[in-house]
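Summary for the steering committee. One of the milestones for this cycle was to obtain a three-dimensional model of the protein with copper (II) ion bound, which we needed before selecting residues for the alanine scan. The sequence and ligand used are listed below.
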Amino acid sequence: MTRLIPWLAIASLLFGAGAGAAVTVTDAWVREAPPGAPANAAYFTLHNADDVTQTLNGATSPQFARADLHVTHLESGQVRMRRVQAVEIPAHGSLTLRPNGYHLMLVRARRPLKAGERVELTLQFKDAPAVTVQVPVRRGEEGEAADSDMHHHMNGM
Ligand SMILES: [Cu+2]
């Protein structure tokens, strides 16, 4: 599996350049999780240069068992999150995954990640080439919701 990763990264770079990179990623970061946390939240902004809506519908990282799209929401006054199958980026628009909103939940780090390290993330789109990015791990801001701490509210983790 590990041997495939550089090839995936190179393929997505070449394909991305050739196709005009319909979707690009900026401002990506992964939140450092407290020891023993089952997941890390990843945030980023997606930019769609295309004339049609693009759909992010999957992600992988060699450093995690799984990556799921989540949205944080209020339910009966409690902050919860649920899994979503996909998020849409409007034509010539952008979508920001941010604390308290959409985020990518990176589930079960193969080893704990500290601030300053990097996560390799490949984002998959329904109608656009996959994009691979190297994402820095950071500590969250004080008072910001830590999506990674909320997993005890979730089913199926
Ligand atoms: Cu989540």
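Key point for the committee: The chain has one domain: 4-138+145-153.
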